Amino acid sequence: MDNDEADMNTALMVDGNAVAGQLQQIFGRDMTMATARCAGCASDAALGALMAFTRGPGIVLRCPACQAAIARIVETPSAIYLEARGAAFLRMTPPP
Amino acid sequence: MVQPVLEWQAGTVTAIRDETRRTKSFTLALPKWMVHRPGQHYDVRLTAPDGYQTQRSYSIASPPERVGELELTVERIPDGEVSPYLHDVLMQGDQLEVRGPIGGYFVWEVTLGGPLLLIAGGSGVVPLMAMLRHRAAQHAMVPTRLLYSSRTADDVIYRGELDAMAGSDRTFEAFYTFTRQPPAGWTGYRRRIDAAMLGEVIKPFDKRARVYVCGPTLLVEAVANALVQMELPTEQIRTERFGPTGA
Question: Is residue A18 less than 8 Å (CB to CB) from chain B?
């Protein structure tokens, strides 16, 4: 990535919190306080604190520590795809 | 806490208020209103006649104490897909499709306590205003400071209300900084938020401060990095970036 592209991507970045609605649609609960462990660097971060890139055809969530892609979400007219192989696990509190 | 299913509903626009040249507040009455947590947002969805849909997230400006309706303050982004419609087309009495409240990360309630440092760039003040209005509605004396960066005096959203709050509550102080054109006679800050400014504003709270930062990505990055350099525990820092535009 050259510098201009990196700057552009940084400027377009938001937080995982910005895709809380899409996550809640998939999981049926708020996921912004759930923890994701990065499969690449083993850092833990709240989903709400991941780096979110939302201006493409899909959503990409990246690790704030190493920037590896943790998850991608794509919506088509008939389906929602969630690919999360960049996460070692998601940890959330059990429902009461 | 069992969460109800997140579903779209049609809110009715009951009021539209000009805040600044580029921001308006929209009051929506919701058939399925739910109490929110200050800092949460709603998704707004527009559907074109051909079925094309697009959505954006907008922070709630009103406190949860305002039952039955919610207020969204929206900045008009000239090349945006949603905000120009809201600003230029939507009228009182119209319906708007929304879902929420959403998000559990960037929220503050009186029960979380303080001291509280709120840092805003531009329309990033909106979710922080929900926190301040909630704090005022609860008559909470949580020591609170707001550091708010705007381009010019005309770009400050909620100025009158913020100054009234600060005037009537000795535990709340508002600090403004102007990055382009400070008002005539201004003796306060007149630059982008930097480490020195943060150090001055955070001083009485020191490392106990709970900090919420909302604004353009580059402002949030700069502030978050400076706070980490000050060795503020990262779990006390919550950020919300809205990209270059908010849209």
Answer: yes
Q: What is the pTM of this model?
A: 0.90
- Angle among Cα B110, B113, B114 to the nearest 5 degrees reads 125
The distance in angstroms from the start CA to the end CA of chain A is: 45
Contact of B23 with B73, CB cutoff 8 Å: yes
CB B111 within 8 A of CB B142: no
Nearest CA in chain B to A53: B243
- What ipTM was assigned to the predicted interfaces of this complex? 0.76
Tens of pLDDT along A22-50?
Answer: 999 999 999 999 999 999 999 999 999 99
Q: Which of B105, B218, B243 sits opposite A17 (nearest CB)?
A: B105
The Cα–Cα gap between B38 and B44 comes to 18
DSSP states of A13-65 as a string?
Answer: -EEGGGGHHHHHHHHSS--TTSEEEETTT--EEEGGGSEEE-SSSSEEEE-TT
| CB contacts < 8 A (A, B) | 74
CB B123 within 8 A of CB B157: yes
Interface test with A, best of B3, B5, B6, B123 (most A CBs within 10 A): B6
- pLDDT tens column, B10-60: 999 999 999 999 999 999 999 999 999 999 999 999 999 998 888 888 999
- For residue A65, which amino acid is it? A
Q: Where are the alpha helices (DSSP H) in chain B?
A: 83-88, 125-137, 159-168, 195-202, 217-229
Place of tokens 């709603």: B42
Number of C-alpha atoms within 13 angstroms, CB side, residue A55? 15
Q: Tokens at residue A37, please?
A: 């462990």
Q: What is the 3-state secondary structure (H, E, C) of B169-194?
A: CCCEEEEEEEEEECCCCCCCECCCCC
Tens of pLDDT, residues A73-93: 999 889 999 999 999 999 999
Mutate one of A15, A76, A80 to test the B interface: name it (highest B CB count within 10 A): A15
Count the alpha carbons within 13 Å of B82 in the hemisphere toward its beta carbon.
Answer: 20
